Amino acid sequence: MDAAQEAHNREAFRQAVVNTLERRLFYIPSFKIYRGVAGLYDYGPPGCAVKSNVLAFWRQHFVLEENMLEVDCPCVTPEIVLKASGHVDKFTDLMVKDEKTGTCYRADHLLKDYCKDKLEKDPNLSAEKAAELRHVLAVLDDLSAEELGAKIKGYGITAPDTKNSLSDPYPFNLMFQTSIGPSGLSPGYMRPETAQGIFVNFKDLYYYNGNKLPFAAAQIGQAFRNEISPRQGLLRVREFTLAEIEHFVDPDDKSHPKFSEVASLEFLMFPREDQVSGRAARRIPIGEAVTQVGLLDVCHLVSSCLLPGILFSILTIIHNSVCSGIVNNETLGYFIGRVYLFLTELGIDKDRLRFRQHLANEMAHYAADCWDAEIECSYGWIECVGIADRSAYDLRAHTDKSGVPLVAHEKYPEPKEVEKLVIAPVKKELGLAFKGNQRMVVEALEAMGEEEAMEMKATLETKGEAEFRVCTLDKVVTIKSNMVSISKEKKKEHQRVFTPSVIEPSFGIGRIIYCLYEHSFYTRPSKDGDEQLNVFRFPPLVAPIKCTVFPLVQNQQYEEVARNIARALTTVGISYKIDITGTSIGKRYARTDELGVPFAITVDSTSSVTVRERDSKQQIRVNVDEVASVVKEVTDGVSTWADVLWRYPTHSS
């Protein structure tokens, strides 16, 4: 099958899924009667139920099982908080405008669409040109505004709607700005993520946790991003639900006591070395991905080997070391494993789930390691969960801005004499030299590591000045000996004071749910074979309705039995839908299959009923007074459908 046909099939499948979702009110465009607003969607009854079930399982899987501290912080955030975090200055995308109509487009999306369209639909594309376009797609995230503009002009890309020429790309801040209070003097923003609310509360959460590390805080809530040109349905929206975890840990000890519980899990991983070399994602046990196998281990084995047969073992270790140590630490690896379990238990296809490591150009300068859980759907591979070791950046940033130390303490059994690095910028001299950039130079100097600081000290003592790169200014500046004092002092300390590192798994709930819809959707022929029926194969865990109750015919006795069963289902906490319309049983089954309801109870007598399973269409006969407990047992995962098939007689319709 050629690329054009594959693209056509993907589009047809997506349209079938979206049409079903909108027709059955899983979600619809917001403000539909006013022609809607791009990037805003309403969840209907089944969509709300699926979302609620996903979030309930998230709480159980992470908050309860990991004993996390859950918080709920405001959506409106003062400007100073987001200034400290870097969002005010750097939370931008590059935008271009139609030079005649003023319509805005996201620049990288236009270039990405152009490259993909040519690769999929141009039969005359040369191998050399195809390789060039693939390279552009590979480095797209690393292109500067100037490089992006040059590519757009070079390929002759115009406004999609009007074919007018486009402006040069320029940054656009994605946050929704507002003001707090009627005066307009207190600027704020709708939060672009939930994480900052956790960071600013670290001191109180640390105290609540008995001043002990490690601990994790979690939050579920709405986030807002003023997307330039939202598209792809639920995948890129302007208001969305995030579920985020901030796991605070000692930077000197990122081991995890429960890592052994996930170490044997094997799934698709896409390390940065494989991406750069053009290799595909491969299955790697997470325990192997975290384990550090160094050259010394191999050399020790070689030197101690006297038997030729052990050479095979040595070669195996050398081979395994290629994918060993690709995940920075155990805690990061533990959460990658837990995210894999969460997604696959929801119903995500494990063969269309991979964990991709960020390339060097994607990584923030402070990050130790970052991985994305990407799920394949008709739009391609979509980032749905980010799992990052953000080091101590966030707590340090808020400490510097607020003046409140967001630190942890480790008491020593005996006092220790330690040598401490002291960096004292001379703010007056730096102010004279760097004017408005003084603060950024000061912060960069204070953030120096010991090795870099001592090198600068030696250079200043011998030459009187030193070259110093300031990342936030993206340039090298000259520091003179009168601008900073660097020394080491010996002190006796009773405790170690340090800024914790944070491991952050961040879940885009809407994206996960949309991918779940696609992974769960299929069609099958009707009984007569004259039409294709839509089915969502949701696991009972996330199904919007767990079962339906149908009287076989409109009969007062059967309807009374149906109502009694409904009351019993309510008592055991099972969601249900009762249908006494009298429509044919086949049509009623088809309607509920299209909603993803896993079980249907058909009342065809006053003493026993049939229970039908959605995907196999198998039926069993169960006594009326047992049926609620049987459905509860299977939907809660205590038993499988195969288990109950053994216990109850099958029924042929």
What does this molecule look like?
With 653 residues, the protein is an alpha+beta fold. The protein has 23 helices and 28 strands. The strands form 8 sheets. A 9-stranded mixed sheet has the order 3-10-11-21-16-15-14-12-13, sandwiched between helices. The protein has a 5-stranded mixed sheet with strand order 25-24-26-27-28, sandwiched between helices. Strands 4-9-8 form a 3-stranded antiparallel sheet. A hairpin with a 6-residue loop joins strand 22 (521-525) and strand 23. Helix 5 packs antiparallel against helix 6 and helix 20 (556-571) packs across helix 22 (627-635). The longest helix is centred in the N-terminal third of the chain and has 21 residues, at 3-23. The chain is globular and about 95 Å long. The two termini are 40 Å apart. Mean pLDDT is 90; it is low at 293-322.
